[in-house]
Design goal:
Structural class of chain A: mainly alpha
Strand order of the largest sheet of chain A: 2-3
Distance between the termini of chain B: 103 Å
Strand content of chain B: under 5%
Shape of chain B: elongated
Shape of chain A: globular
Largest sheet of chain B: none
Oligomer: heterodimer
Helix content of chain B: 25-40%
Radius of gyration of chain A: 28 Å
Number of strands of chain B: 1
CATH topology of the largest domain in chain B: Cytochrome Bc1 Complex, Chain D, domain 2
CATH class of the largest domain in chain B: Mainly Alpha
Largest sheet of chain A: 2 strands, antiparallel
Number of helices of chain B: 11
CATH superfamily of the largest domain in chain B: Cytochrome c-like domain
Chain lengths: 640, 275
């Protein structure tokens, strides 16, 4: 009973805090501020404002009055309403607390997002693992799923606490922006809060009811609760995503930021669904990586062989989840970037070809780390079974492709050079390395890295099986043919379209490459499924992996966490000097895109804070299962 | 060594490794566009063109796409006046522009009216342009700024700048704002004769039935120099000194004259054949 209280109290405190904030946002004290900002158009106010940034104004002339245009498509009902534009802010609209407002919000938001991603992702794969355990009757899966939830539960209250703190920070430091967002999203924010209630209730019932609903029909009830938990959790995710996507590509408002559509029109902006898909998949990969680190930590701390075997198996499963979710992630990212380009070519180029372009070199380092760590872990894991000897000769070739792919990916296109260096190079670009710096070369590299990572997976899955179907040779030949065709296709599409056609086709070629990679993954999974029927299973010796392999399981979450924060920096920066792109300018002192080094420092601070708190959560999870030995009572007969 | 310490050390080393990479890369900040207040009386052709170039490469964000990466026509290396004439003659052109200036303006304000082959939105078969409308957010160029960009595009390849420099009248917002306009500029000359008189050309040159031996006789200058040379002689008078004369012509006309005035004078002089 006491333990339950320990979990519940901080969570409810977080929820109440959030509700208080939502309530505060509707406070009559805030609303007049908005009204004042919107309507105070007198000369004095205009004189006090700085001009909209970047606009040339004639000396001695007032700012031109822009007439509000009401789109023809507006309903009669809406036309009758007063259209209030987004506030135009001056420097004095931003409170100064003595430290960088952006840095404060950046850190808190990032930590909130890390924990939110984790707690929303874990129940997704826990439900699947629980179902597998139930259907196969292997209760190890059920225990593992329960243990995953234990870690997630402690993180849930921390998510709520960071969420509440973030809301306070935003209302304190960016009051006008938040007031505008509240006006736009209106009662949707209350629905979000209500969903938080539902999420909390379902989460606690799901976790604490685990053993009470473990067998028979009761298990179906438990699984249903898990499903509802995920439905609510995913809804929370997409609702919060609508706030982020609105700031990037606003919809349901006119050119001046005045609300012209209903809440659904505001939410379903052009970037909402691409962002939903990208975050949904990324969260699963991230969550998998974090629980993998937990398993690795427990493996390294294990005292008995049984413990080592359990956590080795848990680590393998976590890595499987993380890498499986990670493989389609670049394609979801591709869709998001394509939609960004379709919405605003300018925004797309700011991300991919402007000052943020250097960041993709860092991204290459991070994804390279993830792929190398993921593959290394799989190769180490192959030592668990003797059947893996059939495939070990392939590892050096896979490693070669991964390393070459990684090096191509990190090759920059444009370098800042001194005149002497330009003379030595013979131009601004190296004659050999220059062509490797552009996207077609990188697309070839990343697709080949993904294909070969999948090959590692496939070999791992095959290493403990002896295939017995009569068409095994034909099946293997077909798989080899699929790999060869896909690899040729990826290279040909990249080289031909990338270097011998213009940009439009260059971009188009990546679709062919992505399809080739996906075809390998899908077709090989299907063929293997049929080939594994009736296969002879060789024994696997869980716990017989090296300690070194466990550090690969730590490298994954660190790189994932860092990568997530880096992509957040890009997503936010493409708005440039706008709070809400094209409708509400950011006139704060920090309305510029920070340099990559500064961003790197901020990301590292956020990542280290997250890691420290996560290690605390791991310790908490261990603490909850630790029992103190009862004191040995002193008997009356003792003593001299 | 305890596991916790090992794990923390490994995590810290890896994280700092990533941080190091970001700090080794070029450090560029994406500055927000800054406010710029211009005095209308200070506009000269050169400063107006310079403003256009600054906008083209800066706040206008034109070079994000118009570069040698192939995403949009590479304007910096194209002669946009000649290109405009070619586009106007194209059967696919359905706009209302009649000359290079109006074409360039139209392409910025209504980029979808003529999409250059191969540069349309993906899947639109070159019927939709991906180019943003430059007087709308996020670019939001004013009319004066658009004119400056056109002037830059005309001037960069030595073409005649046909865009008139902004005048107080043209820039005035309607109604109430008019009262606050300060006429800081002298009246703009309405014709070549007025401009020649205003800038005191006849103090040294024989012109407009006034004779002066100080500088070269300009009554037949059209037979000796073409328009480009005449323009250069006014804007950079010391570039070529006529034989037998001293380099004493003021060199600040580029800063004092308006585009319109300069062009009126150049055209007038080009027509002087001594007859």
């Amino acid at each position: 009973m006491y333990k339950k209280k320990q979990h519940i109290m901080p969570k409810w405190a977080g929820i109440l805090l959030l509700l208080a904030i939502v309530g505060f946002s509707f406070s009559p004290h805030l609303l007049p501020i908005v009204a004042a900002a919107d309507t105070a158009m007198d000369a004095q106010a205009i004189a006090e404002r700085i001009q909209p940034v970047g606009k040339v104004r004639l000396l001695g002339k007032p700012e031109p009055v822009i007439e509000e245009k009401i789109p023809d498509t507006l309903s009669h009902e809406n036309q009758e309403q007063e259209l209030i534009p987004a506030p135009k802010l001056t420097r004095s609209d931003y409170p100064n607390i003595g430290v960088s407002s952006r840095s404060v919000v950046w850190l808190i938001a990032q930590l909130h997002l890390f924990f939110a991603a984790f707690v929303l992702a874990v129940p997704l794969f826990v439900l699947v693992i629980e179902l597998i355990g139930f259907k196969t009757g292997d209760w190890r899966f059920d225990d593992m799923a329960h243990e995953f939830m234990k870690i997630s539960l402690s993180a849930y209250s921390i998510t709520a606490l960071f969420g509440g703190t973030l809301a306070f920070a935003l209302f304190l430091l960016y009051p006008q922006f938040m007031a505008y967002m509240m006006r736009v999203f209106n009662t949707q924010t209350l629905i979000y809060a209500a969903l938080f209630f539902a999420e909390s209730a379902l989460l606690y019932i799901y976790y604490y009811g685990w053993n009470a609903m473990r067998y028979g029909d009761a298990k179906w009830v438990h699984l249903t609760i898990g499903l509802l938990l995920n439905v609510v959790g995913t809804t929370l995710l997409v609702v919060a995503n609508s706030w982020a996507s609105f700031t990037m590509a606003p919809s349901g408002v006119n050119e001046m930021g005045a609300i012209t559509g209903n809440i659904w029109e505001i939410m379903k902006g052009p970037l909402w669904n691409p962002l939903n898909l990208h975050r949904f998949i990324a969260n699963i990969a991230f969550g998998g990586a974090i629980v993998g680190a937990y398993a690795a930590y427990k493996f390294l701390s294990a005292k008995t062989q049984a413990e080592k075997a359990h956590y080795d198996w848990m680590g393998y499963t976590s890595n499987f989840i993380a890498i499986l979710a990670f493989l389609p992630l670049p394609f979801a990212g591709y869709w998001l970037m394509a939609e960004i380009y379709a919405y605003s070519q300018q925004m797309g180029i700011t991300a991919m070809g402007g000052i943020l372009a250097w960041l993709f070199v860092v991204q290459a380092v991070l994804i390279g780390t993830i792929l190398l760590a993921g593959n290394y872990y799989l190769w180490s894991g192959m030592s668990r079974t003797q059947g893996s000897e059939r495939y070990t000769w392939l590892i050096k070739y896979i490693a070669f492709v991964l390393v070459v792919g990684f090096l191509i990916w990190v090759t920059p296109h444009t370098l800042i050079l001194s005149p002497a260096e330009v003379a030595t190079l013979g131009g601004s670009h190296h004659h050999l390395l220059g062509p490797l710096g552009i996207m077609p070369a990188k697309n070839i590299a990343v697709n080949l890295m993904l294909i070969f990572t999948f090959l590692s997976f496939q070999l791992y899955r095959r290493s403990d099986k002896i295939i017995t179907v009569p068409w095994a040779k034909a099946g293997n030949a077909l798989i080899v043919a699929i790999y060869v065709v896909a690899i040729v296709n990826v290279i040909f599409a990249g080289v031909y379209y990338g270097y011998f056609t213009n940009t439009v086709y260059k971009v188009g070629s990546s679709v062919i490459q992505v399809m080739s990679t996906l075809m390998v993954i899908i077709s090989c999974v299907v063929i293997d499924t049929f080939m594994f029927k009736g296969a002879k299973i060789l024994p696997s010796h869980w716990g017989k992996v090296s300690d070194r392999s466990q550090y690969a399981l730590f490298a994954l979450p660190i790189a994932f966490t860092w990568l997530m924060a880096l992509m957040g920096y890009v997503r936010s920066s493409v708005r440039t000097h706008w709070h809400v792109y094209t409708v509400m300018k950011d006139n704060s002192p920090e309305n510029y895109i920070p340099a990559i080094g500064h961003a790197g420092n901020m990301i590292t601070i956020a990542t280290l804070l997250f890691l420290v708190i996560i290690l605390f959560i791991f310790w908490l999870a261990s603490l909850s299962s630790t029992k103190q030995a009862p004191p040995v009572e002193q008997t009356a007969t003792g003593g001299a | 060594m305890p596991v916790l310490v090992k794990v923390l050390g490994f995590s810290l080393a890896l994280t700092l490794g990533f941080t190091l990479v970001t700090n080794l890369l070029p450090q560029i900040e994406g500055e927000a566009p800054v406010e710029k207040t211009l005095d209308i009386s200070a506009f000269t052709e050169e400063s107006f063109i310079a403003l256009g170039e600054e906008l083209f490469k800066g706040n206008g964000t034109c070079t994000l796409c118009h570069n040698n990466m192939g995403r949009a026509p590479d304007i910096p290396v194209m002669n946009m006046v000649e290109t405009s004439q070619e586009r106007l003659a194209d059967n696919r052109y359905k706009g209302e522009a009649k000359d290079a200036e109006s074409y360039l303006r139209e392409s910025m304000l209504n980029p979808g009216i003529y999409v250059v082959k191969g540069y349309g939105k993906k899947g639109s078969n070159d019927t939709q342009s991906p180019m943003p409308i430059v007087d709308k957010a996020p670019i939001q160029l004013s009319d004066i700024e658009i004119d400056a960009v056109i002037a830059y595009m005309q001037a960069k390849d030595g073409n005649l700048v046909t865009v008139a420099l902004p005048t107080a009248e043209a820039a005035s917002p309607p109604a109430k704002a008019e009262k606050t306009v300060q006429q800081a500029t002298p009246t703009i000359a309405q014709n070549a004769e007025q401009a020649i008189t205003q800038y005191g050309c006849t103090a040294c040159h024989s012109l407009l039935e006034i004779e002066s031996p100080v500088g070269p006789d300009l009554r037949d200058v059209g037979t000796r120099l073409d328009t480009e040379e005449i323009r250069q002689s006014i804007l950079e008078p010391n570039a070529v000194i006529a034989e037998g004369y001293f380099p004493m012509m003021p060199s600040d006309f580029a800063e004092r004259m308006r585009v319109k005035e300069l062009e009126m004078i150049v055209q007038y002089l080009a027509e002087q054949s001594g007859e």
